[in-house]
Write a structure and sequence with these properties.
GO terms for molecular function: protein kinase inhibitor activity. The chain contains 16 helices and ten strands. It is an alpha+beta fold. The longest helix has 78 residues. It starts with a helix and ends with a helix.
Amino acid sequence: MPVGIFRVCLVVITAIVNHPLLFPKENGTVPENAEEIIQKMKEREESLRLEQLRLEQEIAEQEATQKALEKAEEVVEESKEEKVQWDMWTALSMVIFLLIELWRQDFQEGNWQDTGEEDDMAVLGKAFKGVAFPDKAILASFYEKRILGTTGDMARMREMVEGFADDLLEALRSVCNRDADMEVEDCMGVGSMYENWRVRKPFVCDLIVPFAPPEPYCFRSQTWCSGDSFPPDEQGYGTIKVCRANEDVTGCICDKTKLGEDMLCLLHSQANTTRLSSEMEDLLCFKNTQYLDADQVMKWFQIAVTKAWNRISHKYEFDLSFSLLDSPGALKIKFRSGKSIAFNLTPVVQYENSDVYFISHFPRSGLAADLPSSTHWFLTFAVYERRFIQLVSKTLPANACHVSCLQILSFLHGKQCSLTGPSGLTNYHLKTVMLHLLQARPSQDWAPEKLEARLQDMLKFLEKCLHEKKLYHFFIGNGKVPAELGFPIIFQRAEPLNLFRPFVLRRDVYRKTVDTFHEMLRNTSALINEYTVHIPLAQTNGIHKESL
């Protein structure tokens, strides 16, 4: 503060001393330089004015920039709000679309059986146009000549095979070590031979043989619908764990917790682990696991059957051998006359206390995919399928045509495949179609005189399934299974299993299957007439008049 006052005083004194009025004579240079000073002041004033203009321009530019930024922020905010609203409407629209699509699929799957014959005709595509379908008289004559004659042969063959299989399994039990080997139970007949609809030779009996581990072990099974997530290609399969009867299902905590280097599990030391691994291999498990290995089971079963046959072969005047390399359970009886009888003897594991079975080997088709691994077992519902057909047959009219339809369709498809090569369709697919229609149609619709109409229904339904690439397993996901069957509820509540899913993945097989089906339709009359006794035209016309 004192320094400031001193400076002010100094400036005032200097101004007084140099004022021209106070010292006019000494300060004579001022008038001479006045013009130069004025010029400099004007230049200074001009520079200050230009600087002021420049500053004003910069301020204006900054204000414009600020306004532009504010406007841009407002646009961004508005776009964000619009985007949020658009995203919300998009998501809502997608949800509505998915709900509509799910409802449409459920409606089609759950209510197709409620539609009448006129609605079924809408399903037909170009394949049925121009197809001359055999009439009732020709179908009846064909069935009587080609189908009925084989029924007696099937009955005699079943009786012979079942008697020999029982004897063979009894011998197998005698050669096995009851304290270490698997325990084999009595065999059961399943499939077309025991449902009386197989038509094509050679006739092959399918027998399944349940087995169980020796004490103190037991099987604990897990299926794809038991809660844990299974990939789509593993649906329809399950795994079988070999455990001690008193073993906790969840296992020891050392399997789930990483123990320290200075900690040791007293139950699972290295010696115990080695001994357990050896025991599991003896119990036909996959290496270093407790899961039953289907390949190991089939090797054990083939060896056991060979030993059993060696024990009883002297009682029979024929030879027994394994017939197919790709079917480990396929056996063939060869008589000295040159004739032979083939049958399948396949070990299975019972699922809990039901008649659903894990099957160690399932006959392959061109459509079937390879097993995910040898520890994955396919589930078969063959026992329940046979029971369902028997149960429904009691409510149908005498000589109902449901089995006849399946036999004719199986014959036509088999004949067509022998001409043009195999396709993705199997007899199991054809039987599944019949099971769905048996549940959908009233019992009076299966009267014998309606054979032609029901056969056309099966073809229509099959064409619809091929077109949509969807044929659902009859039992899995079907909530309308009769309670009298005692079918496990876990499979009724499961997601429906699409038997035609491989068609989606293998377009070449799908194209071949569709072409074979269309060719079969065009050749239907020719294939049936080839095996039909000539019927006078007057008789055929008479039958048509009666039907009208």
